[in-house]
Design brief:
This protein is α+β, with helices and mostly antiparallel strands. The protein has five helices and seven strands.
Length: about 180
């Protein structure tokens, strides 16, 4: 009996502790206004260097979406191409279009919301990015057929839950498919 109780407690702890720990460590979003895009060779449609108002340079990666690579990346590009039903070469071209789209969308000072959560241990941080006119960059990329719905999720700075936001992104993606936009040829 004692062994079963200990085993049940251990199982419960293994299941619940990571959830409790992750909720405790989730920082609130920090709003960074008047950000500007800093071009570099690694910038893509969903990951880019940003000059903050205080002059620091940081690299951010969008939550919820993934644009195809603007440079050939082997297996990763093939996986992204398969999502859209296009060739590897077409996926790289789509990535170049997404990169140009993001550069244009962020050509005026924009806002970044971040929790300073690192991306896979890299010097990049996940973020929600709003253009100068207040439009969500992830939504714009999906609407134009330039990004797939993929990646890390989070409740949004405006209080919307990730499930509700994902439903919205899927609606935008369905419309982009119907209109044959971007990668949905």
């Amino acid at each position: 009996m004692r062994c079963r109780l200990s085993s049940a407690f251990l199982t419960l702890a293994v299941v619940l502790l990571p959830q409790i720990a992750s909720t405790r460590t989730a920082l609130p979003f920090e709003r960074l206004d008047a950000c500007t895009l800093e071009s570099d060779k690694w910038t893509d449609g969903d990951s880019f260097r940003v000059r903050l108002r205080d002059g620091r340079l940081e690299t951010f990666r969008l939550y919820f979406v993934d644009t195809t690579q603007s440079r050939s990346r082997g297996k990763r590009s093939d996986e992204q191409a398969a999502y859209f039903g296009i060739t590897h070469r077409q996926a790289v071209e789509l990535g170049q279009r997404a990169k140009a789209f993001t550069a244009h969308a962020l050509s005026h000072p924009f806002t970044v919301y971040t929790r300073w959560r690192p991306v896979f241990g890299s010097p990049r941080f996940y973020a929600v990015v709003l253009t100068a006119d207040g439009k969500d960059l992830a939504e714009l990329l999906v609407r134009e057929g330039l990004a797939r719905i993929y990646g890390t999720r989070t409740p949004l700075p405006d209080g919307r839950g990730s499930r509700r936001y994902l439903r919205h992104l899927h609606e935008l993606e369905a419309k982009a498919k119907t209109q044959r936009r971007g990668g949905w040829r």
